[in-house]
C-alpha cells in the first residue's frame, strides 16, 4: 500500500500493518472491515491479496447487496492488478454530502432537457470500467455515461486522474466530461501509538459496539482535538477533448474546523472550450 501525499504517516503505518497479513479472501471478514474503517480511509486496497476474477465473484458472500445497502460498504475488484478493494465511501458523511450536491446538479440538467432521454443516478457502473462511479448522467439506451463524477478523500489525486482517463478511453468520446472532487484534510491530530489511545485488543473488543464511538469521541474531547481537520475541496473537470489531466482545479472551497466558517469558494476559468456539447448549452 502506498501512502497518499495528504495522509497521516502514523495512520498509514497502522493501516499497512492491518492489511499486510491479509493473503486470502477468507481473511476478509466483517470484523476486519469494521477494524479498517476505524482508520477513516474510504478506499483500502488489499495489495497483498491477489485473486482471479472468478475467485472474487464466488467469494465474500457476506458482502451482499443487502449488507451494502445498509452499511454503505462495497467490495470492488480491479482486474488490472487482481486486487480486492474495500469501498466504504457510502458510509462517509463527508463523501455522501459531496455526492448529494453533485447528483442534485446532474438531476437539474436532466430536468432542464425534457426532450433528451437522460437520467441521473448514483453508484451506477458501466461496461469496462473497473469501479463504480459516485454518480453519472447518462442517455437512455447508451452504454456509457455523458458525465461521470468521482469524489475522492483518501484516494490520491493521481488515482482520480487515472480513473478519469480510463473512463474517457473506454467510452471513446461518448463520455464527454469527468468531474473530480478531491478533498484534502489538514490539522486533524492523531494520538501516539495505536489510534485514539486504544490497544489493538481494546479496538477489537469495541469494534462492533457503540462503546467504540464513545471512546473515540472521549479521546478527542479530552485532548481538545477536532474530530475533523480543516477541509479543502478542489474541483477538476476533464473533458473528452483533453489528452492530459487538467493542471489546476476550476473551483476551490475551504472549511475551518475550529470556527466552522467556510469560504464562498473560488472559481477559476481554466477551461479553454465549453465542456458540454450543444445539447446542454
Strand % is 15-25%
CATH architecture of the largest domain: Alpha-Beta Complex
- Please state the CA-atom Rg, rounded to the nearest Å: 20 Å
Give the number of domains: 2
Alpha carbon gap, first and last residue: 43 Å
Oligomer state equals single chain
What fold name stands as the CATH topology of the largest domain? Answer: tt1808, chain A
Q: Briefly, what CATH class of the largest domain?
A: Alpha Beta
| Uncertain spans | 1-6, 267-281
> What profile does the largest beta sheet have?
7 strands, mixed
Which bin fits the share of residues in helices? 25-40%
Mean pLDDT: 75
Given helix and strand content, the structural type is alpha+beta
Order of helices and strands: HHEHHEEHEEEHEHHEEE
Can you count the beta strands?
Answer: 10
Shape type: globular
Q: Output the strand order for the largest sheet.
A: 4-5-6-7-8-9-10
Number of helices, where a helix is a run of at least 4 consecutive DSSP H or I residues: 8
Could you please describe the fold and organization of this structure?
This protein folds into two domains: 9-87, no CATH class; 93-255, tt1808, chain A, CATH 3.90.1570. It is 31% helix and 20% strand. The protein has helices at 9-19, 30-37, 53-58, 65-71, 93-112, 157-171, 200-206, 210-222, and strands at residues 43-46, 74-78, 83-87, 118-122, 135-139, 147-152, 177-186, 230-239, 251-255, 266-267. The strands form two sheets. The protein has a seven-stranded mixed beta sheet, with helices on both faces. It has a three-stranded antiparallel beta sheet with strand order 1-3-2, with no helix packed on it. The N and C termini lie far apart (43 Å).
Amino acid at each position: 500500500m502506498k501512502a497518499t501525499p495528504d495522509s497521516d504517516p502514523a495512520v498509514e503505518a497502522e493501516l499497512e500493518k492491518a492489511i499486510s497479513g491479509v493473503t486470502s479472501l477468507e481473511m476478509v471478514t466483517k470484523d476486519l472491515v469494521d477494524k479498517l474503517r476505524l482508520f477513516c480511509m474510504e478506499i483500502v486496497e488489499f495489495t497483498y491479496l491477489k485473486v482471479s476474477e472468478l475467485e472474487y465473484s464466488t467469494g465474500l458472500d457476506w458482502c451482499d447487496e443487502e449488507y451494502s445497502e445498509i452499511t454503505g460498504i462495497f467490495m470492488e475488484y480491479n482486474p488490472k492488478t487482481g486486487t480486492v478493494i474495500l469501498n466504504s465511501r457510502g458510509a462517509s458523511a463527508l463523501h455522501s454530502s459531496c455526492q448529494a450536491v453533485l447528483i442534485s446538479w446532474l438531476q437539474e440538467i436532466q430536468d432542464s432537457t425534457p426532450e433528451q432521454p437522460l437520467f441521473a443516478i448514483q453508484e451506477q457502473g458501466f461496461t469496462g470500467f473497473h469501479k463504480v462511479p459516485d454518480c453519472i448522467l447518462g442517455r437512455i439506451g447508451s452504454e456509457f455515461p455523458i458525465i461521470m463524477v468521482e469524489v475522492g478523500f483518501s484516494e490520491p489525486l493521481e488515482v482520480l486522474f487515472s480513473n478519469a482517463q480510463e473512463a474517457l478511453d473506454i467510452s471513446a468520446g461518448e463520455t464527454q466530461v469527468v468531474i473530480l472532487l478531491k478533498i484534502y484534510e489538514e490539522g486533524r491530530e492523531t494520538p501516539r501509538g495505536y489510534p485514539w489511545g486504544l490497544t489493538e485488543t481494546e479496538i477489537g473488543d469495541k469494534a462492533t459496539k457503540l462503546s467504540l464511538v464513545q471512546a473515540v469521541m472521549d479521546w478527542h474531547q479530552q485532548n481538545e482535538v477536532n474530530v475533523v481537520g480543516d477541509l479543502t475541496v478542489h474541483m477538476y473537470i476533464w473533458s473528452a477533448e483533453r489528452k492530459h489531466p487538467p493542471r489546476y482545479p476550476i473551483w476551490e472551497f475551504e472549511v475551518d474546523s475550529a470556527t466552522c466558517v467556510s469560504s464562498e469558494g473560488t472559481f477559476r476559468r481554466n477551461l479553454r472550450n465549453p465542456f458540454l456539447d450543444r445539447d446542454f448549452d
